[in-house]
Amino acid sequence: MPKIYINRNICKECRICIEFCPVKILRISDETNKLGYHPAVVTDESRCILCYLCERYCPEFAIVVKK
Ligand code: SF4
Ligand code: SF4
């Protein structure tokens, strides 16, 4: 099963990962991180198709995807 690790403390809520994810399993959370942003979270990892777009395009390098 794919694992998507998002470093909540460095996410700046730009939503790029959300826009690029082809299966729309990323969303903005309700929590606030140390920087004052609402970090992205994964809703259903089992639906990830391992395209790595979120990891590649996150400008903060906050996402790591593993098989
Ligand atoms: S690897 Fe692709 S499918 Fe999986 S969460 Fe990232 S953008 Fe979505
Ligand atoms: S692309 Fe990176 S910084 Fe932007 S919302 Fe997603 S995890 Fe946060």
List keywords for this structure.
alpha+beta, 67 residues, globular, two-stranded antiparallel ribbon, binds iron/sulfur cluster, two-stranded antiparallel sheet, Alpha-Beta Plaits, 15% helix
Task: Spell out the blueprint of helices and strands.
Elements: E1 3-6, H1 16-20, E2 26-28, E3 40-42, H2 53-57, E4 63-66
Bound molecules: iron/sulfur cluster (2 copies).
Q: What can you see in these coordinates?
A:
The chain is α+β, with helices and mostly antiparallel strands and 67 residues long. It has a single domain (3-66), classed as Alpha-Beta Plaits, CATH 3.30.70. The chain contains two helices and four strands; from the N terminus they run βαββαβ. Strands 1-4 form a two-stranded antiparallel sheet. The protein has a two-stranded antiparallel sheet with strand order 2-3. It is globular. The relative contact order is 0.38. Residues 6, 11-17, 40, 58, 60, 62-63 line the site of one iron/sulfur cluster.
What is the gist of this entry?
This protein has helices at 16-20, 53-57; strands spanning 3-6, 26-28, 40-42, 63-66. With 67 residues, the chain is an alpha+beta fold.
